[in-house]
Amino acid sequence: MVKNNKNIVVLGAGESGVGAALLSQHKGYGVFVSDFGKIKENFKAELIENNINYEEEQHTESTILNADLIVKSPGIADTVSIVKKALSLKIPVISEIEFAGRFTKAKTICITGSNGKTTTAFLTHHILSNANVNVGLAGNIGKSFARQVIKDEKDVYVLELSSFQLDGMYDFKADIAILLNITPDHLDRYEYDMQKYVDSKFRICQHLTKADWFIYNADDPIIMAEVAKRNIVANKAPFSIKTTENVAGYINNNNQLIINLKPELIMSIHDLALKGKHNAQNSLAAGIASKVLEIRNETVRESLQDFKNVEHRLEFVGKVNGIEFINDSKATNVNSTWYALESMENPVVWIVGGIDKGNDYDSLIPLVKEKVKAIICLGEENDKILEAFTGVVDTIVEAKSAYQAVTYGYELAKADQTVLLSPACASFDLFESYEDRGRQFKKAVRSL
């Protein structure tokens, strides 16, 4: 625990950083916020209103390296110069989640994975809310954990955790840890060493006790290989859509979702609000977590049936002259896009592109052959996409704005076909963020 009046420096002034600064101030610590970029006006106003010292577009080393503790925003890599200097001086550098976790005794359900964690977090929160559990939702989504812990009125927090957040967590532990899948992503932050990325994801299991639960995907070969190597003492609850053996939840041959924690829950997968194989896995994970907390079967079943998916994740935007438009802007890697294409039932005009994160598109080729009739590249540099899919799809065009991409989509698609924005890339070449990309897409669809 940090002693009163110690110097805390917060690096990064987004939602995570400002939340950590507010919590620091609330606990009576000296706090200084430093952002190497420009601070957004709403966050700057909050810092000023609360008399919190800050700087932007610079890092003043003499102030930062005088810290007793540094709370680092997840977007800042450990390789950044100021972080390396702090670590060399033995100044602890932790994540906002680690910091906030020191000030709550609430139960935590911690969810990570390369894909599906946002949906699973929202779905778990939805079930618990419907069961009248006093529950908060934080981590990689919504209001920061630190901001919520200031009042700390919740009994349970559902936390979506990225590998970057997990990297800065040392003493923190989950009560229920959920690991959905592991596929190559963000490898530029892990020296292109897949094992380092895997180890990062498995930090979700750190400090688990025999009283805790580890819920994980038994269909994921990387996860299963790691579980076999590690001594995880928590109660294990694997789930599968491929086998019914030795798992806590599964899909059987009759298309029923079954969770065999007593009392056993059985429901048809056709009743699930979320469609597609990957969403069956997300539903199993959220359902098992809810059953661990002894939520009634009726509430779990009803919640899995009436859930509305999150913005920018396979979000239905509308139909125009029989053409369906779907916003999956949050799909910033190949695996997320694979899941999106896998769940499509109609022929697809696919909008793809942006900043490539070292993508290998080979895994998409069978699905693209089967489902995609045209491709619209939405990015500054489309060479890799053109190289991967020329000859696989007859029609490939390039667009430089969401409006142009939607217009092409409307021209290329026919009634009972789908225009799918699922970029498989980051957004920062043409847009501020994946949210900005998704909102511009939706605005363009509504202007048709």
TrEMBL record:
Where is this protein found? Answer: Cytoplasm
Q: Does the keyword Transmembrane helix apply?
A: no
Instruction: State the source organism's domain of life.
Output: Bacteria
Matching entries from HAMAP family are given as:
MurD
One annotated GO molecular function is: ATP binding
Q: Which GO terms describe its cellular component?
A: cytoplasm
Listed GO biological process terms: cell division; cell wall organization; peptidoglycan biosynthetic process; regulation of cell shape
Q: Please state what the protein is called.
A: UDP-N-acetylmuramoylalanine--D-glutamate ligase
Instruction: Enumerate the spans annotated as Mur ligase central domain.
Output: 111-288
- Fetch the Pfam families from UniProt: Mur_ligase_C, Mur_ligase_M, MurD_N
Q: Which residues bind ATP?
A: 113-119
Pathway where this protein functions: Cell wall biogenesis; peptidoglycan biosynthesis
Q: What does this protein do?
A: Cell wall formation. Catalyzes the addition of glutamate to the nucleotide precursor UDP-N-acetylmuramoyl-L-alanine (UMA).
UniProt catalytic activity:
UDP-N-acetyl-alpha-D-muramoyl-L-alanine + D-glutamate + ATP = UDP-N-acetyl-alpha-D-muramoyl-L-alanyl-D-glutamate + ADP + phosphate + H(+)
| E.C. designation(s) | 6.3.2.9
Identify the stretch annotated as signal peptide in this record. none
Q: Which UniProt keywords apply?
A: ATP-binding, Cell cycle, Cell division, Cell shape, Cell wall biogenesis/degradation, Cytoplasm, Ligase, Nucleotide-binding, Peptidoglycan synthesis
The record's family statement is: Belongs to the MurCDEF family.
Name the InterPro entries on file.
Mur-like_cat_sf (IPR036565), Mur_ligase_C (IPR004101), Mur_ligase_C_dom_sf (IPR036615), Mur_ligase_cen (IPR013221), MurD (IPR005762)
Occurrences of domain Mur ligase C-terminal (ranges): 312-425
User: Does Cell cycle appear among the keywords?
Assistant: yes
